[in-house]
Each structure stands twice: as C-alpha cells, then as structure tokens.
Write the structure tokens for this entry.
Amino acid sequence: MVGRLEALRAKGRPLLDLTESNPTRCGLTWPRDVLAAALGHPDLPGYEPTPNGLRTARGAVTAYLAAHGARMDPAHVLLTASTSEAYALLLKLLCDPGDEVLAPAPSYPLLEVLCDLEGVHLVRTPARYDGTWQVDWAALADAATERTRAVVVVSPANPTGALLSQGELDLVEGLCAERGLALIGDEVFADTALAEKVSVAAARACLAFQVSGISKVCGLPQMKVGWIAAAGPVPEVRRAMERLEMIADAYLSVSGPAQLALPVLLGSRERFLGPLRERLAANRAALGRAAGSEAPFAPLRSGGGWSAVLRIGEAVDEEALCLALLDDGVVVQPGFFYDFERQGQLVVSLLPEPDVFREGLARIARRLRAG
Ligand SMILES: Cc1ncc(COP(=O)(O)O)c(C=O)c1O
C-alpha cells in the first residue's frame, strides 16, 4: 500500500489525503509574526544546558496542567524533544531489554516501534466497542507477568477517541500499585476531549507519568517540545526524576530557543486550539451527515482526538478497499494498522480542510456501494 501511494505521489497524482495528521499542512498554522516574536526572547544568544529543561519552560508546563486541574511541582517535570522521546526516556528508565509494557488495543502504532527500539515487548489486550469503548481490564491484569514494568493508557485514545473514566483510572492505578508497575498516561489529545476527562497526573497510589507535547497541544510539531510530568508517591517520584535527569543529560535534546519560547506558545495555545476544535466539529458534523441510514459505513462514537473510525463491516477486505480508494484518489488507513480485534474498520483524520474531507467521504461511500 505504501509503495502504491508513493508511486502515485511521485507521478504527481492529486490525492485527497484523509490520513493527514500534520496540522501545518491542513491550514491550521500560526501567524509567522507571532512565532517569530515568541522566538525573539532576549536570552536567545545564550545557552543554559539543563537536563530537565529551563525552569520557566517547566513552569509553563505546570501552568498548562493546572488549567487541566492537575497541580504539579515544576521539579517533577522534565522536558523532551517530543512525546515520542518522552516514551523513549521512560522506557529506558523503567525497563531492561526483554521487559514488557501493557496497553489496551486498538492503539497508536508508533508505540510498538518505540518499545521495539528499546528492546521492550508491547503486550496489547483488547478494548471492545458496544456503543462506547470498554477496555478489558481483567485481561490486562491477567497479562501482567514478572517482566511487566508499566501500563500505557492513551486518553483520548488514538484512533478511537476513547476516554479513560475516573473508575478506570482508579482501577488501573490500583493494579499498578499492587503489582509495582508504573502508569504512563499519554494525554496529547486532552484539549480535544468531548466529555469530562481525568488525568494520570492526579494519580497518588502508583508512580505515574503524564506525557504530552506542543506538537498536539499547540499544533507546533516543528518546535520539538514535549514533556514528562511525574505523579504518585513522592519518594518514588524523586528517585524517578533523578534518574530521568541522568538519562536526559546524555542527550540534552530540547532546543534552547524552543524552551525560551514555550511560556508564550503554551500560553497562546488557544490560537491553535480554537480553530482546531472548529475544524474537528465541522468534519465530525460532515461525517454525521454522510453516515445516514443508507450509508455503507458507520462512525464509531468517539470521546475526542484528531481521527474517526468508520465501521465498514467485517466482510470488506480493509487492505483491498484502501488500495481501490487510492485509485479513486483517496488516502485512508486500514483499521489493522491500529490492531483492532476484528477487521472491518477504516481510520480517517479529522484535520483535512472540510471540502477535502467531505469529498473523500463521498468517494469512500461510492467505492463501498460499488462493492
Ligand atoms: C497518541 C499519540 N501519542 C504521541 C504522539 C507523538 O507526539 P509527538 O509529535 O509529540 O512526538 C502521537 C502522534 O500522532 C500520538 O497520536
């Protein structure tokens, strides 16, 4: 599929890309002068190597978390170059090669790659859809072995938009505390939650790490800033932060100018989040209209995030459909990229311009009807 897509792109074939998840390619960009002003900090010519990140930048992260109802100490925040790097540092902290990490599936595909790169085995246990997404927590608890070191929860989840409830957070926190596991909460899509949400930053019983970054919170993937915010029993948090600082000191990967700009960028995040929420709402509404009673696909209920899952029926071969859609000039992802328990899903990004999104949906419907 990737080869076919690259060949079409190389030929300059116009494509409606419903996999686009880079906001800067979907008309959701910051004004140039605002970014230039944020980067024009008086301290720009200097360099302060700090493994955990500049105090002002960490303070900006705690202010952001406070706006989400989590009071954190800036000493318990460590900056990273991205959320992906936050995962990598945490896996180095928590795991030895051969250890295991548990996560409910469907899940974000890069998680497996990030685990593989650290020699860690990602063990996925199912979440099932019955009008809402239900994680099989008993299966997750059963999957824990003496090699398990952490549980990862993504909320809102990618691609399903499933939101962790307070009851589920209590449950997974209790499991982690009982088995001596760390809890990693990926909350990159928290600002797009459509219902009340909880944060692992509120965890008290077990060592927990909230991870996020401005690639999703501000729509600025090019700035390369993410973070880890640690919560839980204070002695464990302190030990973890000391070791994380040692790991981060080996790389010092977060750019100084981006750290200096972080308070302004995070403080101005509504510049991005406002138009983003409008785009997501417009495309969700278009999806609702396209999915009338005669439609050959049905969107699954979501609690937020940047993508939507379309159920197309188990009889449809996902890969064959995606290849046929490429011939129709539409790029979509098959559900199997995300490890759904059963086949019969497509995943579409909700970021594209509304006319691109609507026309893409129309072509998906046409192709499905054609059989
Ligand atoms: C759930 C989830 N976590 C993390 C990331 C990576 O974020 P970053 O760009 O900050 O590395 C993504 C990117 O799509 C994501 O979907």
Summary: Residues 44-267 form a domain with the Aspartate Aminotransferase; domain 2 fold (CATH 3.40.640.10). The longest strand covers residues 121-129. The radius of gyration is 21 Å.
